[in-house]
Amino acid sequence: MSEFEISRLREPELVFAGGEKAKDPRAGLLEYGPCPPRDGSDHEIVRIGIVGDSWSISAVRDLLEEMRHGVLPEGSDRERWNQPFPGLGSESELQMSYDQRQKWRSEIEGDHVDALQEVRDEEQQVEMALDNIEYHIENVCSTTPSPDVVIVSIPPDLVEILTGDKKGGRIRTKDTDFRSRIKLLGMLNETPTQLIGPDTLRDEDVQPRREVAWNLAVGLLYKARRGRPWKLTELKSRTCYVGVSFYDERGTDPDTRASIAQVFMETGENFVIRGDPVKDIASDKDTGRTHLNREDAKQLIETILRRFGDRQGEMPERLVIHKSSNFWEKETEGFKDGSSEVAARDFITIRERHPIRLFSNTQYPPLRGTVVLPPGKKEYYLYTKGFVPEISAYDDSGMPKPIVVRPHSDVQSASYREICEEILSFSKLDWNSSDFCKKLPVTVGIADAVSDILAEPLAGELPEEMFPYHYYYYM
């Protein structure tokens, strides 16, 4: 009987200021500082706007002040995975300060929140709340100079009214998602937004204060400078990496769907492309997964390659497509037709779960980067989560589960090691977090968040020249 083959990939490195390399995002930021912005400056002063009620604005300012002085781990342990937040300011290792002026604060009045309680229709409640938040975002962004980022700190009373008995639940109606609409409002004002809920500010979140400080700082830095705090070293040059996903447009014909593509280049620079709405999209009856027809797949890939060429000044030599569903025949033909001029191609399905489990003969779970090749080698099982020697920890709960990597049987140019190394690299490219890694690569891991924003009716009304391609608007 054939046996499984097991190997381990080396941990991808990240690049920080001065071209210095490290494997852990936090260790690299502490040791070398973030990659400098395009203007070459050494220190970033982030102009922060805040929208909220009197309590939530005050709570955000308290958090920022605490971050300025630094946040220590709880207790006395300072393990490698339990890095203290270093603080902000001219001497900070993060090379970041913040500027928070009165004119960049806009307060949601209590009377407005109280008035929502008189409205019985849930849709109308949410729309009234969003209209008011839109007013305050515009108010903050119309100042000169305007803030780099607007923190929308949701008032506790507003959350309670809009969620009702669904404590901690997502604010969502049939036609709109609260978070997604706020992201779009930021886009319309050409300013990225950062949402913070009252649970986070009251330390009722699952994240300790130190984690909140780390992740907020990295997210603000990325959004403010419109650039990456770290870059990858592992991706191949002249390769176009694409994550393709789908969404239903809310408030329209339920049979109408659209595709989106997240496009990444070897430096990690990225942008979002919105496909045209189509009605004859195919759907797998067994899995519910969506697939493009031949012509739409061809058109989407042609658009991607054209945009890539415009940005890079040359067309790619290799195209890699990541998708969470299998590649159907007509869909594959369209992707191949649209990329016929590209020399090398890899079409890869990535699934989040598989029932296979590895058990170590030590006290530790399997190592991150472990790859399991089953008999036949038609798909691979990659541990993007597991014990990480670089931080001496397994930064998750429960037994780690591998993701499934399934290259297309007819469209594969790279070896399984190259494919899995790239996926492992993309698991370290979420700049809304300073975690060592995520389970899924960003090519498919954040597709739902991007899709939720583009599914909003307001997004569908945006003309092409106003469409926000930049990734930092969606995070």
From TrEMBL:
<feature type="domain" description="Piwi">
    <location>
        <begin position="157"/>
        <end position="459"/>
    </location>
</feature>
<protein>
    <submittedName>
        <fullName>Inactivated PIWI domain containing phage-defenseprotein</fullName>
    </submittedName>
</protein>
<dbReference type="GO" id="GO:0003676">
    <property type="term" value="F:nucleic acid binding"/>
</dbReference>
<dbReference type="InterPro" id="IPR012337">
    <property type="entry name" value="RNaseH-like_sf"/>
</dbReference>
<feature type="region of interest" description="Disordered">
    <location>
        <begin position="75"/>
        <end position="94"/>
    </location>
</feature>
<dbReference type="InterPro" id="IPR003165">
    <property type="entry name" value="Piwi"/>
</dbReference>
<keyword id="KW-0614">Plasmid</keyword>
<dbReference type="InterPro" id="IPR036397">
    <property type="entry name" value="RNaseH_sf"/>
</dbReference>
